UniProtKB/TrEMBL annotation:
This is 3-hydroxyisobutyrate dehydrogenase. It comes from Streptoalloteichus hindustanus. Residues 188-255 form the Phosphogluconate dehydrogenase NAD-binding putative C-terminal domain. Pfam families: DUF1932, NAD_binding_2. Transmembrane segments: none annotated. GO terms for molecular function: NADP binding. PANTHER family: CYTOKINE-LIKE NUCLEAR FACTOR N-PAC, OXIDOREDUCTASE GLYR1-RELATED. Residues 9-145 form the 6-phosphogluconate dehydrogenase NADP-binding domain.
Amino acid sequence: MTTVALLHPGLMGSAVAAEIRRNGHTVLCCPAGRSARTRERAEELGLVTADLPTALERSAVVFSICPPVAAEEVAREVAWLGFTGVYVDANAVSPDRARQIAGIVRSGGATSVDASIIGHPPGETATARLYLSGPRLAVRAVARVVDGSRLQPVRLGDELGRASALKMAFASFQKASRTLAAVAHALADQHGVTDALLAEAERMPTRLLADRAYLPSVAARAWRWAPEMDEVAKALDAAGLPTELAQATANVLTLWGADKDDPSQPVARVLRQLHLHG
């Protein structure tokens, strides 16, 4: 069995720790300086508490699951203490930041694995995927820790940054779409048309992100949709609501100007057009 240090047991980290423990491994955490709720979670889960130097000395694998703003700070502390095992950076960071963090932990002697967790915190009613990229043997060691649990390991290859790229791609849709939904409902509420908006929502397709074949149709209509989003921005402004998401959408739509009324374009070409803005 493997000894794992988890930094730090927040909501997702606690769920990950529980799955690792359920697999028969020992999980250490460092509650010093953390919130009372973090310490309570550690106690509830039966995690072994230790100071950071002791946890690192005893552990073969370290999971870093923290707010993205703290990812480098945690990595530097681990590197400074000379950890030489496998460091799993499972934070929501860009591929470039993931590679920077890998460089930090390598400077202390550790091997870095780029990871991303997609899904609800795993438990009795939910499963999640742990996407992994990086050195093959290190990825294999991490996968063994969670294999067979409700946190399913998925290998993405040897290139550091792939797991983070997937997280960013998924989050760009998931977070933005939910935020757009909030803005849409605020505008509907302002004008008393919420029930009608909900009725239209029920008629919408549910596989928007999965339907790549539909994207050329979006590009073909972008010349009409961009001005429409400009009008949406004006309506939001009049209601005292944020306009930035609508304006940004209009800006992106203008990149497909050459595809006007031509839904026959290959998906690859449609997506390539988005890279030409610079």
